[in-house]
Amino acid sequence: MPKKFAVWRFWRISVLASVLLAVLSCLSLAVAADDALDKTKASFLFNFTKFVEWPALVNDTLHICVVGSEPIVNLLSDLASRDTKGHLLQIWSGIDDPQICQILYIDRAVPELASLLQQVRGNQVLTVSDAEGFAAQGGSIGFYTESGQIKLEINPQAVRNARLKINALLMEIARIVR
Asked: Using CA atoms, how far apart are residues 106 and 29, in angstroms rounded to an integer?
C-alpha cells in the first residue's frame, strides 16, 4: 500500500508540475506578445513625428505625451535621442495640460479618454489610441490588431480639424475611417 501511495503522489506532483510549466509558458508568451505590441506602438508614435507636419510649431521641441502606458513611455524614452526631422523630442508620462502635446497617446484603459480627446479638440494635437473605434469616434489615429499585427486607421477629418498634415505614405498604409 505505501508503494502505491508513493506512485500516486509522484504522478500527482508530475501532473501538477506539467500544468504549472504550461501556465508559466503561456504567461511568458502573453508578456512577450504584450512587449512586442508595446514596441510596435512606440515605434509608430516615434515615426509619426516624421510623417506629420505641425504648421504652427513654435519651437523645435515635439512633445509626445503618453497617458496610461508606462511601458510605451520607457520605450519612447530610449528613442528620444534619435532624429525627428530636426526637432528635439520630449516624452511626457501623464499630463496636466494635454494642449502642450503634439502627439497625445491615450491607452484604451484610461477612463478619461473621451475627456482628454475633448480637451485637445481644435488644437494642433495628433490624438492616438488603441481604444476600439477611436478614429471613428473623432481621434486622429487608432491602432487596431489584425492577424496579430498592429495596424492603423486614420480619421482625415479629425486630422484636418487639428490643422495637421499627414504624409501620403502614412495614409496609404492606413485604413481610412469617416
From this structure: 25
Choose the CATH number for 34-176 among 3.40.30, 2.60.40, 3.40.50, 3.90.25: 3.40.50
99-131: pLDDT as tens digits: 889 999 999 999 999 999 999 998 999 999 999
